[in-house]
């Protein structure tokens, strides 16, 4: 990436560097050479965004169709785990300790992100912990290969992944990086926080001020970007995330919210017999949640900040794992 940045400083555009960085130097035909879909895509990119078609075609010459990606996305969905099975995946001693270490190593950036965006440090840390175990599992596929494979060879979601491929090429141009150099998950999620390209362009920030956004191996940019994402999705500074609830004998268990969107206020939920452990206003919009816990049913009331966490991943169990990992990391740091 450094070579491209030096060229960028001299005003050289990456799409004009096909020969210099190997876009067209392969001796064999690429998997997408001659593809009508790719040709149509390249025409759109040249027409709508000013890319040069010959350089894009050279780029696609080096893109590989990955059958392992198609196998991964097409395999039958595993049985949805209960909370008692899901929680132990993320709330582990190793992940908690790694979170405390990550916080200590990046304390200045986390404090600054909390002050700038109003998002507590522990939630930023927990997101990175749940997503990639603090950088241990960021993905092994080239993002170009992943998005091209899914955009051109996976019809059920081809439109979505082609849009992400457009966003990826735009971000590579903006950041002056070789698009073949960036790795991610099989679905194209990138870096420490696993942003899709559209999220990168909308929410990622240059939090260390070096002129480039690097969420792959720059924790400062990753920290600022997660905080920016939460802030722009409505995080309320200083407000709680979730409250545990008790149900009386005659309480309405069917008050559990279908889906994640808040569909009632707390006063309505209390009228159905739910009692929160925390004092909260009746007019607060909430999500009523039931989990199958290790010791039986657990009832929780998701507050507006809980809903914000579900914007990162549309799962109540995901958001609860982030919340509880955040709490555990705070506890461990307080012990030392």
UniProtKB/TrEMBL annotation:
Transmembrane segments: none annotated. Pfam families: SLT_2. One of its GO terms (biological process) is peptidoglycan catabolic process. Residues 36-327 form the Transglycosylase SLT domain. InterPro entries: Lysozyme-like_dom_sf, Lytic_transglycosylase_MltB, MltB-like, SLT_2. It comes from the Bacteria. One of its GO terms (molecular function) is peptidoglycan lytic transglycosylase activity. Gene3D superfamilies: 1.10.530.10, Bacterial muramidase. The active site is at residue 131. NCBIfam families: MltB. PANTHER family: MEMBRANE-BOUND LYTIC MUREIN TRANSGLYCOSYLASE B (PTHR30163:SF9). This is Membrane-bound lytic murein transglycosylase B. It comes from Pseudomonas knackmussii (strain DSM 6978 / CCUG 54928 / LMG 23759 / B13).
